[in-house]
């Protein structure tokens, strides 16, 4: 079966599947009872094509707009511009001077001429009643007026579907429709022959069963939809920094209004259409909107920023002009939201299983119907009444047809692919509580198979709460962990050195010191920037004062490839000065001078270089992040178009930043090791710091090696083959190094790789990995969009929890498939063999519908929602080549099926003699006994299926309330059906002895299942047998001691 599934359904991958692969498997699944339900949680390919068409249209529009704006710029200065634009009365009464459509046409059309007519950026700001410096006023009345005139920053979504919609979809099941027709015919013929109500019993029994199946199915599907709705809401939580009422604050992008001043940084998503106000080195990636991969530079000459695009480099302030469905991004998102998630490989494989078993079931159903009809003809031939057909004969034929259709109902396991969705929805909801937001369904499955995790250091293995604890300036090295020690350090270094240090800290930064709504000083920025700014404030510096002293001409933001950040200042006394900071050894290599102990610039001699290198090494050995700060005087000639030079610097000093290892990381790494998952640290930090942290976390062992990115890059393919399995730490790595490592692990070594990332440059590695894990706190929007799972607390322990849940999902679905295949096999063989050998089917249509519900919806609820346990992380990972339907599953399915078939067959052939049934109702009692025994076999098999390999299946059973509730309901309704609904379900009340035998036969399946688990399978037979034997001895120990 696995070969069949891989050949026909194996093309669909966990991510980045081709459209052809997605279409191909749909065509192969032609035997479907209910297309709406089966394909509900699969991608809507037509909507995807529609979204792609919108992207192509946007690309063409923007290309034309750019050409027109370029042409307009050439003539704009020569023209006497005048406007024929009239402000709509409603807009004017609201206190604004420009309408939403006019704003939209300016930005979306890149209309330079219109922008100039409206007075440029300043004119637009005035007409929007906002301030470029302080933002909009937040009085409730003004905010409401803005919303009324310009709309809100939300896109149209399809309305949530109510419960009745799911009822209607459940009714679309083709086999249920056929059974409904059978029920109608049965009612008409039955009432005509036997009158009301006796003649209506069979028909009403089928109708009641259909309604019960529909109601239970719809309830389950509706609850799933609510869970997905909650998760979608969480996925859309994106915040931005804005200035409102002269206060810097964070708000949701959905609360943005035209006139807001938004602060954008590298990796951010542009949250609305708007105009560039100020900024440096801004590159915008418009591929998500237009499909165009070439980034566009945003500046005063090209100020148009479009919603949904990404800041690839630089930082800027933006004036929001257009929001929501008035933007092209809003229209695109409205279409994409209907496109759905890609189906997961397990969903596709189980669709294949359902199709294959469905074909077998259809064949058995046709043969069963033919055999039953042939038996009827034979009997009538013997009686000589083959030309005389009565209503009873018609009813019997109808019953045969209903049994055949019901065999198809039971045989086509529609619940298999839907069990995946149910299990994933349950897991995703629970994972949200464990601080992991799953963006793509397939990530849950894949994470359970992961064999290696490539983790960042900063913020994932460490707390990301950084503090400057040591500093070396002007030859003075001291601890500076608190305000007193920092003040002492500040007084110990020369004033000139302190002055240039503060200028470097407060100007060469991506952070800011602001006053928040509570009128308190707040430091904004990354943890590294925050630590440095806090250090500057403790030294007695004033952020605003330093900023006002000089003018920033150019900024090169920190780049993980260059490992540095630079800024050019225009000094008040004339001339330009460059400040640079970054990886200590890289910045130090660019220096040829140093600020000495007297605060004077002196040549950087070998003794000074050795002292600084020793300081870096000493700091790194203490697991501190080291940064070097330097500056360069570049005279009076500098153009902001020129790159920042990178040689001839003067070293200001070195700071050591403490970022403690997160509590519980060492234990989590140990859990991964016991689970067969290799953890590798990939970091941009100094190799000594990386090794110290890796040893503390338990990542770097005696057998493993640590390597630097530049050295890794130089290795040949042959050397990499030997080297990569041993790599446990990669320091000073670039995003390309991470991507190369991930690619080799996936392709050459066939590993299932999970990768963490937080920066814009991590996007290629996150995309390449089997599972991309973005950081929720430190991660940029670009990283989050490329990821499959967002770790909301940036904690490595959460990644281990995701792996545990992934394994739980995989195992739960295997358990459900094992359970359902057993019911399928037994129900098919029993009805088919009985029809062939005895001329009648022991299980009626109503009874088979009830069995179908037990194994389908209720079985999925019970087994697919089992929470994870710690034992899951003691197994080896499935990896890339593991078979989903394993040998262990086949052993359990075939063994249990054989037992159940023997029980049913024994009752059918010897039941009357054993129970001394000889009255007119003997057949009815026997068939009820068979039905009851069969159901209780499934009940106890469901318990046995809780663990496919361990004998003790009761461990933690009472903690799984869903499982207990499902079993209780199944037993309760079985009693009701047998004892009180006999006229509708073709059953009769049983004696207590018969009840005991039915339950006993079901219970006997459990020791049979335990015995089966002791039979070694082909893979790992000795280990499996040893594990079972140890467990058996352990469980018997208390009894033996007693």
UniProtKB/TrEMBL annotation:
It comes from Dovyalis caffra. It is found in: Membrane. It comes from the Eukaryota. Residues 841-1015 form the Cation-transporting P-type ATPase C-terminal domain. GO terms for cellular component: plasma membrane. InterPro entries: ATPase_P-typ_cation-transptr_C, ATPase_P-typ_cation-transptr_N, ATPase_P-typ_cyto_dom_N, ATPase_P-typ_P_site, ATPase_P-typ_TM_dom_sf, ATPase_P-typ_transduc_dom_A_sf, ATPase_P-type_domA, Ca_ATPase_N_dom. The lineage of its organism: Eukaryota, Viridiplantae, Streptophyta, Embryophyta, Tracheophyta. PROSITE patterns: ATPASE_E1_E2 (PS00154). Residues 118-186 form the Cation-transporting P-type ATPase N-terminal domain. Keywords: ATP-binding, Calcium, Calcium transport, Calmodulin-binding, Ion transport, Magnesium, Membrane, Metal-binding, Nucleotide-binding, Translocase, Transmembrane, Transmembrane helix, Transport. Residues 237-335 form the P-type ATPase A domain. Residues 5-50 form the Calcium-transporting P-type ATPase N-terminal autoinhibitory domain. Catalyzes the hydrolysis of ATP coupled with the transport of calcium. GO terms for molecular function: ATP binding; ATP hydrolysis activity; calmodulin binding; metal ion binding; P-type calcium transporter activity. The chain crosses the membrane at residues 174-193, 199-219, 356-377, 397-427, 888-908, 924-941, 961-982, 994-1012. It catalyses: Ca(2+)(in) + ATP + H2O = Ca(2+)(out) + ADP + phosphate + H(+). Belongs to the cation transport ATPase (P-type) (TC 3.A.3) family. Type IIB subfamily. It is a multi-pass membrane protein. It is an enzyme of class 7 (translocase). This is Calcium-transporting ATPase. Its EC number is 7.2.2.10. Pfam families: CaATP_NAI, Cation_ATPase, Cation_ATPase_C, Cation_ATPase_N, E1-E2_ATPase, Hydrolase_3. NCBIfam families: ATPase-IIB_Ca, ATPase_P-type.
